[in-house]
């Protein structure tokens, strides 16, 4: 059985036929749509490395079945910058050293963009840490991440 879906990814309409209803959005992005910026960490909803926005809300793409996304709008890390101009959250991560090895950074940034859009971030470090608690950083660059989210919120 095949499952045709049509979704918008980073502003481009993508028509895809899935051969398997169990394909996750994460695998669709990385393996079919050549968008490897979204990272696979745990592949079970525990690390946040795979965070993207669906219709403006942050989700773990490893837990989301692509077949459920017909008509959805997806934004990945590749869709944030405007040409050579970094998105303000990306710029804040650079400015505040909000990363070390960088593997979790796309997920951290997408989660921060979603958190700020939700209006719950503020600049209080405790609130930011709580709002970003679904995104793990094995290098423990949390101070820089928190500063970056705070800066980007201002
Ligand atoms: Fe999706 Fe870890 S790869 S939460």
Automatic annotation (TrEMBL):
Cited Pfam families: Fer2, Fer2_2
InterPro entries: 2Fe-2S-bd (IPR002888), 2Fe-2S-bd_dom_sf (IPR036884), 2Fe-2S_ferredoxin-like_sf (IPR036010), 2Fe-2S_ferredoxin-type (IPR001041), 2Fe2S_fd_BS (IPR006058), Aldehyde_Oxdr_Iron-Sulfur (IPR052914), Beta-grasp_dom_sf (IPR012675)
Entry keyword set: 2Fe-2S, Iron, Iron-sulfur, Metal-binding, Oxidoreductase
Record-linked CDD domains: fer2
Highest taxon above the source species: Bacteria
Domain 2Fe-2S ferredoxin-type as annotated: residue spans: 3-80
GO molecular function: 2 iron, 2 sulfur cluster binding; metal ion binding; oxidoreductase activity, acting on the aldehyde or oxo group of donors
Keyword Ribonucleoprotein part of the UniProt annotation: no
Protein name: (2Fe-2S)-binding protein
